Amino acid sequence: IFESSKETIYLNDPLNITGYSQVLKQTETDLVTGEQANITYIIGRNRISQITLKDSTEQELYFTFDGHGSTRVLTDLAGAIVELYAFDAYGNAIGFTPSVALTEFLYSGEQFDSKIGQQYLRARYYDPATGRFNRFDPFFGNLNDPQSLHKYLYTHADPVNGIDPSGNMSIGMAISIAVNVGKVAATGAAIGVGINVIRNIALGNAWHQEIVSAAISGAIFLPVIMVCPPVGFFLATVGIVDTINIWKSIGSNPNRSNSQISAAAFYTLFSILFYFQQGRRIFGPQQSRNGVYVNMLLRPGDNGRPFVDKTGFEVLVYGQSSSSSKTPLHLETIDSITTWLVNTTKIATIFKQKSVRTALMDEGRTTWLEGEILPENLVFLRSIPDIITISKNGKVYLFEVRSKTDKISDLRTKLKNIFDQIPQEQQGGYEVIEPGNLPTIPINE
Hints:
Elements: E1 6-13, E2 22-30, E3 36-43, E4 47-54, E5 57-65, E6 71-75, E7 81-84, E8 111-113, E9 118-121, E10 124-127, E11 132-133, H1 171-203, H2 211-227, H3 229-251, H4 258-283, E12 305-308, E13 314-318, H5 328-343, E14 347-352, H6 355-361, H7 376-379, E15 387-391, E16 396-401, H8 408-419, E17 427-433
Parallel strand pairs: 13-14, 16-17
Antiparallel strand pairs: 1-2, 2-3, 3-4, 4-5, 5-6, 6-7, 8-9, 9-10, 10-11, 12-13, 14-15, 15-16
Helix pairs in contact: 1-2, 1-4, 2-3, 3-4
């Protein structure tokens, strides 16, 4: 790193036990006097110590961290306290000046650049003064977790319980995702074991035969089925074929028992229900004309139905096209626009008619949470556009389908007034559409 009067060279180790790239040594050279200072760091599961060599004088200091991973104390070889540090929740220094501290590794144990007043978190810099990152988050986010959709928010706005050493995802969020996946896998394992036991009874085998492999298969396939409907439908089809073979086996066995027949009947009922449920996810009544299928399983805790676009990305669609004041052609046009938007493969979320309001109210919320994409005043408008959509890069687009009694000029004025309330960096575009037509404005990813 070059400054006007100083050059700093860092030696990093990307393959250490912490799991993140760490500075092992930094060399600072004064470009005016030529003086040099070397700082060497000892790394274990955390940063253990730093050894500073300057003007033939060596100083070795040891780090003491709190439960959050922040440096609170520096001690010398004798264990005497050299410096104390304190921070607020977001990492702002309390009672000391970072630029004169004896170490750069302070809040959450990460490197603080006092020249710009921001913390280096590898993928991005973090500004404790604002609680925000300095750059756009490349990760789109989890549609089930609105806080994750904010492109600059630090640790889900919960820095007390989270850290983000990568600059991409807080440890708290990663743990939450891992826990949820673990719960789904455990459920899948239980289902796999149960179905395997019933199948074994139907075939006259020992009930515990292949029980371990059944648990492993269930743990693997249930998460896959939840995110990939074609896999679920394929497995359901295999289950139907297996059911037929089981009945053939029972029919050819003169010594069949009542328990075998009962188990086979239960297995058949499960297979049929599973087959129709998975088939509905792909071939249900909301299937698009252009081959984009609708995942009919509602996500827990929200109203949206995830449409899966051609790239496999799930577009969350809120609301239904229904209104006593709209003509069938008007409503059909709204549905056609929705399908067209999904097919662009550039859309993340679609709100149809007043669903942008009910999507919040159904959760008992009265304000649009900080960190979500649409501005609060867009939620409480008296007149909501027919479609509000958000692209994958956070741009907002507004569409209104003209009714027979509407003037195009009035609708354009309405959309422009709404559009002007959206922050400029989030403005994508707006358009008034004639019934039976599709948008003409480009959707930028």
